[in-house]
Design brief:
- The structure is a homodimer.
- The first copy, chain A, contains 10 helices and no strands.
- The first copy, chain A, is mostly helical.
- Chain A binds chain B through residues 29-34, 111, 115-123, 128, 131-132, 134-135, 156, 159-160, 163-164, 166-168, 170-171, 173-175, 177-180, 188, 191-192, 194-195, 199, and chain B through 29-34, 111, 115-123, 128, 131-132, 134-135, 156, 159-160, 163-164, 166-168, 170-171, 173-175, 177-180, 188, 191-192, 194-195, 199.
- The structure holds a DNA duplex.
Chain lengths: 201, 201
DNA sequence: GCAATTTCGTACCGTTTCGTACATTTTTAA
DNA sequence: TTAAAAATGTACGAAACGGTACGAAATTGC
């Protein structure tokens, strides 16, 4: 591939990826408006001017965090849903994988960056667009998986199943933040998966 | 009853109820952290010191708004769910009544104050408590209604139906904020009501 | 070594924030 | 009419905010 073209001046010492990760964790714990640039500077270890140089202003840091969060979901959870095998198991595994993300380490429950924090910052067009994209993606993913599992299924039934599945996931975030245990939500996901499975059969 | 005991000094000219209403609208449009006391002063027409005297600090204004919002829901939407008649119709009417609240006037879509804005402010214990209370209330309400409609129903099935119904409502808020039309969500609510109705029969 | 180039953090700016002290206004009691 | 009592808004203070100018530091090309 292309060699690393050493640039002329002082080389960067900034790890953009780990900084983004830290910002994701902070934003989904406290939301957008409650996070200050000093907070972001603290958790990333980067000075405020460095943050501006690397990520632009606060809003674009948040957008960047949302996109990174989406990539994480796409990499770790979505494959569980698309896996071969019984639909009920795939759905249940997907829900559990999402709970792995929502609960992170046990200490605190950050929930979902998109479904949890974007709704209260949706006056910004870019944020609202990400929220819409997230919801649309989940809906489309569910619909595709259900159509695969039930090729001749009634379109109306598939749409109902799609909404039940997506709404379960969306509600996870609020429920996790409200204090529900991981185990409770895992159970809820399994129930939802079972109901959808029988609905489609 | 007791006569109005005219107090000694200058009488209040503050309408607490209409001020609370204005604060509800502002908070659910912009969330907690993004709202300043000057914003609250603007929408209520009250000076900042008056706000402090009447409602305490910003957090207690938000708590007060959440409680008032809960009362509004209990008065206007909950009776639809508890009404006699077919379960499917009661559920569907309840969802529509909640959408009346979530969409308010057509211009902007404020969504749900509790499910929409509380999750991103839940590091405050009082807020998290309200969020938990809201979710628990909806769950309990649904369970009670379903047990009434299906007295000998399997407990496991009732719990599943309860979660589908509650999650539909919780997801309404995020979906409304993401740009879904009222009509789309009304359709979704009707689908959900139908699925639950057949699940319980 | 020396100049050109790029990155980095200190230090600063103007604005906005929450919260309150205090003088003014309005009312009742005597 | 005058004093006490309660409510109200102006005006202020201290802190936090987002954002940036600018000099110091680090590297490459010559």
């Amino acid at each position: 591939m292309s060699e690393i073209k050493r640039k002329r001046g002082r080389p960067t010492s900034i790890d953009t990826h780990s900084a983004t990760e830290a910002m994701v964790e902070l934003f989904r714990a406290k939301g957008y408006a409650a996070v200050s640039l000093d907070d972001l500077s603290d958790v990333t270890g980067l000075s405020r001017p460095s943050l501006y140089r690397s990520f632009g202003n606060k809003l674009s840091m948040y957008i960047n965090a949302m996109d990174a969060f989406g990539v994480q979901v796409a990499k770790t959870a979505v494959p569980k849903l698309l896996a071969d095998g019984p639909l009920e198991e795939a759905l249940s595994d997907f829900f559990d994988a999402m709970l792995d993300i929502y609960y992170r380490d046990s200490e605190v429950t950050p929930g979902c960056l998109v479904f949890g924090t974007a709704p209260s910052s949706s006056d910004e067009a870019l944020v609202q667009a990400r929220l819409k994209f997230g919801i649309d993606q989940v809906d489309a993913l569910m619909r595709g998986r259900f159509e695969k599992a039930s090729p001749n299924g009634d379109e109306h039934v598939i749409e109902t199943a799609m909404h039940i599945a997506s709404n379960t996931l969306i509600a996870f975030s609020a429920r996790a933040k409200s204090g529900s245990s991981r185990h409770q939500l895992s159970r809820m996901g399994a129930q939802s998966a079972q109901a959808i499975s029988t609905l489609l059969s």
